[in-house]
Amino acid sequence: MNLELDTKAVAGWARSHVPGFQGTLSATKFSGGQSNPTYLLKTPPRTYVLRRKPTGVLLKSAHAVDREFRVQKALAGAEVPVAKMLAYCADDTVIGSEFYIMDHIEARVFDQPSMPDLTPAHRWTIMDDMNRVLAAIHAVDINAVGLADYGPPGHYCARQTDRWTKQYRATQTEAIADMDALIQWLEANMPADDGQRSLVHGDYRLDNLLIAPDAPKIRAVLDWELSTLGHPYADLAGVIMQWSMPASKEGRGLQGVDRAALGLPSDAEFIEDYCTRRGLSGIADFNFYLAFCFFRMAAILQGVKKRALDGNASDPERGLQLGAYVPKFARAGLEAAQT
Fold first, then answer.
1. Cβ-contact 13, 324 below 8 angstroms
2. What digits encode the pLDDT tens for the residues 191-202?
3. What positions does the domain Aminoglycoside phosphotransferase occupy (predicted)?
4. Domains of the chain
């Protein structure tokens, strides 16, 4: 995949579509992302961020930067902090793919949920704000913000299981028995549709949050590619799933970490605080939602691996490293199913 950004083409387009855009433009690609390549744009007056669809052969409905732009624009002024959306380009002849430009926000990003450089009190406050924002996402009035048609009707988990099974099969590079067994378990243990339907982020975790430079406060939620209308418990289970992973650069989890000593909430505390904020007495079938999240992440990482092998990944080396986690997520999903 060509990762070079045609800055002249971007600047020419932006002068006509981004209010106040002027001056020469330079671009630096952010490292680490595996889906939609993202760039820091610098001009003499100010900085921006550009997020584009990858080039090459892509799976249907994947890398939907138009949906990312739409949902964040709709959330402007809501209780969910997002960057200001400035302009979306549907014309893929400008730089070879669709893209959008948004405000650049000065902030901190923590790749590790253990946040090693902070105090316990600071960590706890950030995690509490993470909990608050997740509950706020699920409390958004989708009709009021114009997102009533942002996702199809029907049983979210059944629909998502079917979608990601097809995506997994389309990018499968070898047989993984645990993944086959997990898919069968999900289909056989699907809970009844309880009628809950809210905005869901789809990949809500600490490293997708921008934290204020001088305060334990979330300034923006990023990476809305998987967002849709669905079941809020899947978002909550996604947080718990991530924390169950190894406390390493690749795992980005809290496995084996003394959370109490670090000022980090336990899974039960985080879930309880979320339920309190949403007025819930508890969550039934949480093991299903947890197993579902492991399955979906395994399918996503399989797609990352396939793009890396095909040369379409944003960061091919990192893509292959992440692809090695597919069997681990499948195994963890089966274990979660039996919890």
1. no
2. 999 999 999 999
3. 27-250
4. 7-103 (3.30.200.20), 120-337 (3.90.1200.10)
